[in-house]
Amino acid sequence: MTTKPLIFDLDLSEIEKTLKSWGEPSYRAQQIWQGLYKNLWRSPEEFTNLSKTLREKLTGHFTFSHLAVTTTQYSSDGQTTKTLFQLPNHEAIEAVLMRYSHRNTLCISTQAGCAMGCVFCATGQMGFRANLTSGEIVEQVIYYARLLHQTGERPTNIVIMGMGEPFHNYNATMQAIDRLNDHAGFDMSARRFTISTVGLIPMIRRFTQEKRQVNLAISLHASGDDLRSSMLPINKKYPIRALLDACREYVKLTGRRITFEWALIREVNDTPEQAKILAGLLTGMNCHVNVIPLNPTLGYNGRATTPSRAQAFRQILEDNGIPCTIRIRRGIDIRAGCGQLATHVEASKIKESP
Ligand code: SAH
Ligand code: SF4
To answer: Do 270 and 232 form a contact (C-beta atoms < 8 A)?
Structure first.
């Protein structure tokens, strides 16, 4: 395991401090920052605008990558790419690129595994393994930015919906977003990020107070506490009413719309009753509901909803004035659902390379 710090773990001010301690002028730090985040250079050798001595110093003091590609998979339509990476601590994480006609959306991870134990989720089934550092979160974005750069493109949207619960690794997640925001560097505006949380109320409140431009999505999945607790154990600690109070406060204080996510599981939470109760709970809130048919996982017996049941569910919400979109499952043939590639590779020990 490498002991050198990962360069993506540093803010510009921290790079400046290091360079100062080496007796270098501060504009050198800006050159490094731009090399990393604008030119997307991979290693010190590419920084030909720096002296050889400085390049060697960078090599000696920092590592430029923590993510080793283990597996890359492409969906049959070629529009979705999923990469499984290994971290220096040998944990596996994954990130997904979804190409649309006018968007390139990345889905990135904040933890290896997850402590929240949602029963239908492949990552939850793994348990908690490790928090990612801010730099390891950043590097997933840089990895795909380099790939897109080859065709003159860049990521347009970043959803923090990969492995892990971002509000259970709050500081690293926010630092990663801040670092990618920087105008002189990667310049990805906060509005282009969406954070999805299982509903850690204290962190939702903190996020609200920080008044960030980042979009917020809440994994709701059930409109009654008994059902939600049986699917998402964290609901026992943060039940629906209290969660929705925190959501209402978020909407009120930030003036932003909030999204609710709902994985439709046949005859579990895709019933007209669930839809009606949900519509009642959300009445008057500036929100949007995204429903997605369950992506089957190895450790859970529930089945995906059917198209007609999904349609009926959506209709009930719409009839009650709650905007609802049925999302398609992107890259289901490459197990692009949350944590699914990592668990599959682990279960079968199969290595599938392109
Ligand atoms: N931990 C965060 C973000 C990662 S999960 C959260 O739970 O919100 C991203 C989304 O995928 C969540 O809404 C989660 O509930 C959903 N999800 C997890 N497993 C799924 C599955 N098998 N099928 C459909 N959606 C799933
Ligand atoms: Fe963790 Fe989200 Fe999966 Fe729940 S759904 S186990 S919070 S990653």
So the answer is: no
Under DSSP, is residue 159 helix (H, G, I), strand (E, B) or coil? strand
Minimum-distance ligand 1 atom for the alpha carbon of 165: 1
Is 118 an active-site residue?
no
Residue among 93, 96, 121 to mutate when testing ligand 1 (max atoms within 8 A of CB) = 121
> Measuring CA to CA, how many Å separate 199 from each of 194, 203, 207, 240, 283?
14, 8, 12, 9, 19
pLDDT score, position 349: 33
| Angle (CA) 115 181 73, round 5° | 55
Choosing from 91, 94, 165, 261, the catalytic residue is: 94
pLDDT band of 100, cuts 50, 70, 90: confident
Nearest bound ligand to CA 290?
1
Between the CA of 123 and the centroid of ligand 1 the distance, in Å, is 9
Q: Is the C-beta atom of 218 inside 6 A of ligand 2? A: no
d(CA 116, CA 269): 19
- Which letter does DSSP use for residue 327 in this model? P
204 alpha carbon – ligand 1 mean position (Å): 17
Q: List residues bridging with 304 in a β-sheet.
A: 265
Residue among 150, 100, 109 at smallest CA distance from 131: 109
Q: What's the gap in Å between 313 CA and the centre of ligand 2?
A: 23
Residue, of 128 and 295, whose pLDDT is higher: 128
Task: Read off the pLDDT of residues 179-198 as tens digits, 9 standing for 90 and up.
Answer: 999 999 999 999 999 999 99
Q: Is 338 a catalytic residue?
A: yes
Beta strands in 91-208 (DSSP E): 92-99, 104-107, 111-113, 128-131, 157-160, 193-197
Structure-block tokens of residue 10 = 């540093």
